[in-house]
TrEMBL record:
Pfam families found in the cross-reference section: ATP-gua_Ptrans (PF00217)
Name recorded for this polypeptide: Protein-arginine kinase
Binding residue positions for ATP: 27-31, 92, 126, 177-181, 208-213
InterPro entries: Arg_Kinase (IPR023660), ATP-guanido_PTrfase (IPR000749), ATP-guanido_PTrfase_AS (IPR022415), ATP-guanido_PTrfase_cat (IPR022414), Gln_synth/guanido_kin_cat_dom (IPR014746)
Motif interval(s): RDXXRA motif of the pArg binding pocket involved in allosteric regulation: 338-343
Keyword Glycoprotein found: no
Enzyme Commission no: 2.7.14.1
Residue ranges occupied by any Phosphagen kinase C-terminal domain in the UniProt entry: 24-255
GO terms of molecular function: ATP binding; creatine kinase activity; protein arginine kinase activity
CDD domains registered for this protein in UniProt: bacterial_phosphagen_kinase (cd07930)
Organism: Paenibacillus phyllosphaerae
Name of the top EC class for this enzyme: transferase
Tagged with keyword ATP-binding: yes
């Protein structure tokens, strides 16, 4: 895997539009936060201490210990341009926090981009595993295996009473953050989403936008994750998220069925209007493109649009992000230039589908 290969293609394996309940659950993610005993958290570390952490943790893939779970390459953030860092964020392979880190940050990335291991982010080590569709248990099993591999050579900061010690108090305990990214246009369009999200927060879960904390829920995409890591086991955290996510899936399906039976003409008009605009628009900002791609994705899932795949929608969702647009253009673009290029790229993809009779 080339150090620049992640910027050559939009889709990672976990974004292919496959997996259980893939019409509603885009992806399942497990993130494990760990720190090394006897060293300050990254925000308080000196340059030398950050480099020490880097050398100790990036040595793990070099020993071949990770070969049992895949092929990995270490990429130092200092070797990347600002745009390349942004592309990694847009593909959910690193956090915005790590992208902005000026010293000692790295990502250990699997060749299929389903595993990204961040070094010197908010914590010394953050192991992230991503699966397509509703596979949160499978993601946890893989993350746990990788955690065990690192623990063989790394002395984790651990307290018998508090559990794993982390930079942010909300991660103390298991250090696990489990989440599912869900496409919920039915609940949004039937105006049930606020009631559902309010109920979610009352059972110890958090709702965030597509890029995590502080981001907007563009294109009817929501991340549902656990808030509590202390006082619960990993199994309890995952079971709670799985149970709530399954209920949300059922509510979303019911909302979609209700729209089909009670307002089919309005639904078709919305879907095909967005499809037409995406196919012919000359300029489009990121917010409008996300919403119209969501409309078309809903039309695909309901069988209203037959010759476009969910995979293409996932690809366009990434390709139309500001970093990817500029990376592929080979230059920095103004906001208007990005909007023009975004519309052009969407037109090209949809017209290519028409020319070849499907994707």
């Amino acid at each position: 895997m080339s150090k620049r290969s992640f910027a050559q293609h939009a889709l990672s394996d976990w974004m292919q539009g496959t997996g259980p309940e893939a019409d509603i659950v885009i992806s399942s993610r497990i993130r494990i936060a760990r720190n090394l005993r006897g060293l300050p958290f990254p925000m308080l570390a000196t340059n030398q201490q950050s480099e020490d952490v880097m050398e100790r943790l990036t040595a793990v893939p070099e020993t071949g210990r990770l070969n049992a779970v895949g092929k990995f390459e270490t990429i130092r953030l200092s070797d990347l341009s600002e745009l390349e860092r942004r592309v990694l964020v847009e593909k959910h392979l690193i956090s915005p926090n790590l992208a902005n880190e000026s010293r000692g940050g790295a990502v250990i990335l699997s060749d299929n981009e389903s595993v990204s291991i961040m070094v010197n982010e908010e914590d010394h080590l953050r192991i992230q595993c991503l699966y397509p569709g509703f596979q949160i248990s499978e993601a946890w099993e893989l993350a746990s295996r990788i955690d065990d591999i690192f623990e063989e050579v790394a002395d984790y900061a651990f307290d018998e009473r508090r559990g794993f010690l982390t930079s942010c108090p909300t991660n103390v305990g298991t250090g696990i953050r489990a989440s599912v990214m869900m496409h919920l246009p039915g609940l949004v369009l039937t105006q049930q989403i606020n009631r559902i999200l309010s109920a979610i927060t009352q059972v110890g879960l958090a709702v965030r936008g597509i890029y995590g904390e502080g981001s907007e829920a563009l294109g009817n995409l929501f991340q549902i994750s656990n808030q509590i890591t202390l006082g619960q086991s990993e199994g309890e955290i995952i079971e709670n998220l799985h149970s709530v996510a399954k209920q949300i899936i059922d509510h979303e399906r019911a909302a979609r069925e209700r729209m089909v039976h009670e307002s089919r003409i309005r639904l078709e008009d919305r879907v095909f209007r967005s499809y037409g605009i995406l196919s012919h628009a000359s300029i489009m900002d990121s917010k409008e493109s996300a919403q119209r791609l969501s409309d078309v994705r809903l039309g695909i899932d309901l069988g209203l649009i037959q010759d476009v795949t969910p995979r293409m929608m996932n690809e366009l969702l990434v390709l139309t992000q500001p970093g990817f647009l500029q990376q592929n253009s080979g230059e920095k673009l103004s906001a208007e230039q990005r909007d023009i290029r975004r519309a052009e790229l969407i037109r090209q993809h949809l017209h290519r589908k028409s020319d070849h009779g499907g994707v």
